[in-house]
Task: inverse folding
């Protein structure tokens, strides 16, 4: 089976409001495709297959069939097979897995994987309602004003019942990630000031349950793209200089409802055993243990989602994620830096693009391209991307590319 190499990639500025600029998916896709190919050192005419991640295009813009958008705006992509992938916030992760499978099967040698999302076309309350479509519609969260803050507040309450939870640790996660975002030139919140990571109801108001404003990721416009290639491509192009090798993957899917996931206590000590399995599968396939990993980009759509992922990574025993927060383990100079980019909380969360952006940042880390967010001497990085209340989980491991 071929190895998978990340040849290069690109992220748009997540602080932009494309609707306010009078731009649409055609403009977003044009920039993302053009700059992704340029970063990889290839022309669009070298692409053999395309996988497009998008979760909510029809709801926010009325535009579906986004697999065809690259060929619509880039003549060299006319006739190239393309598919759109939707798995809520894990759309990017599943698009990456599909592209990897194409290369591993030997069908193609060069894959463009693109995540695109436009969410600022409507007011915030309407945007939150659209995003709620990734829950089990009509079966859960009917009392919620904001579906996903409500769901992750429920998750926090269940974690608290099982293990105990001090909200101060959630606030600290937000503080770390927003601080990391300040030095990321493409982070949505890099210029935000006078933030309060406290329980001050005026400066950091409650949104749902125990979750406050700065416990929640943003409504974001943006795109991210990567070029993946096979061993066969590298043999034919010895001058190619990949940023990273993707060495491991994990993929699990559970039912839509949060209640169904939280009810599986018999499956072990973890709150979400299927999330733990996706992570351990990725590490097993990469033939690494957590101590071999230099950092992670994980799915902090809420501070609680990062908190619960910390122990599922194995950084602490189940129920003791607070230890990694208190000890500084998750900070950029800690034992396992988490979200040095700023993650979703500070960096922004254009839903379909997030999983691809995570791999892009992980590859930048192991190739020494991460700028002021760089983790010193990073050679192995992981990602954890999930959709809904973790209904779809995708984990990846990448390492520095051999010379």
Result:
């Amino acid at each position: 089976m071929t190895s998978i190499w990340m040849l290069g990639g690109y992220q748009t500025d997540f602080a932009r409001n494309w609707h306010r600029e009078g731009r649409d998916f055609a403009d977003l896709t044009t920039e993302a495709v053009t700059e992704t190919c340029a970063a990889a050192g290839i022309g669009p005419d070298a692409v053999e297959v395309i996988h497009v991640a998008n979760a909510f295009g029809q709801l926010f813009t009325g535009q579906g069939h986004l697999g065809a958008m690259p060929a619509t705006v880039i003549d060299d992509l006319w006739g190239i097979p393309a598919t759109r992938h939707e798995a809520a916030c894990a759309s990017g992760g599943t698009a990456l897995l599909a592209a990897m499978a194409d290369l591993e099967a030997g069908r193609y040698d060069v894959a463009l994987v693109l995540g695109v999302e436009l969410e600022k076309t409507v007011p915030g309350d309407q945007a939150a309602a659209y995003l709620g479509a990734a829950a089990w519609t009509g079966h859960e969260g009917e009392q919620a004003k904001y579906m996903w803050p409500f769901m992750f507040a429920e998750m926090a309450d269940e974690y608290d019942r099982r293990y105990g939870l001090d909200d101060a640790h959630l606030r600290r996660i937000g503080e770390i990630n927003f601080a990391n975002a300040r030095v990321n030139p493409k982070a949505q919140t890099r210029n935000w000031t006078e933030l309060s990571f406290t329980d001050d109801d005026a400066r950091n108001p409650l949104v749902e349950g125990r979750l406050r404003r700065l416990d929640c990721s943003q409504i974001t416009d943006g795109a991210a793209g990567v070029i993946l290639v096979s061993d066969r491509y590298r043999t034919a192009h010895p001058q190619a200089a990949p940023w990273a090798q993707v060495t491991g993957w994990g993929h699990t899917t559970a039912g839509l409802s949060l209640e169904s996931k939280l009810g599986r206590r018999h499956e072990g000590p973890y709150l979400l055993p299927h999330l733990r399995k996706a992570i351990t599968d990725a590490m097993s396939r990469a033939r690494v243990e957590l101590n071999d990993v230099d950092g992670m980009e994980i799915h902090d759509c809420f501070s609680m989602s990062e908190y619960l992922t910390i122990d599922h990574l194995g950084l602490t025993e189940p129920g003791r994620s607070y230890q990694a927060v208190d000890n500084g383990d998750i900070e950029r100079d800690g034992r396992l830096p988490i979200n040095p980019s700023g993650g979703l909380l500070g960096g922004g969360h254009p839903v379909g693009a997030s999983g691809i952006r995570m791999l892009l940042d992980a590859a930048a880390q192991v190739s020494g391209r991460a700028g002021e967010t760089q983790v010193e001497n990073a050679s192995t990085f992981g990602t954890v991307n999930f959709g809904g209340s973790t209904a779809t989980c995708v984990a990846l491991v990448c390492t520095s590319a051999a010379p």
The mean pLDDT is 97. The first helix runs from residue 25 to 40.
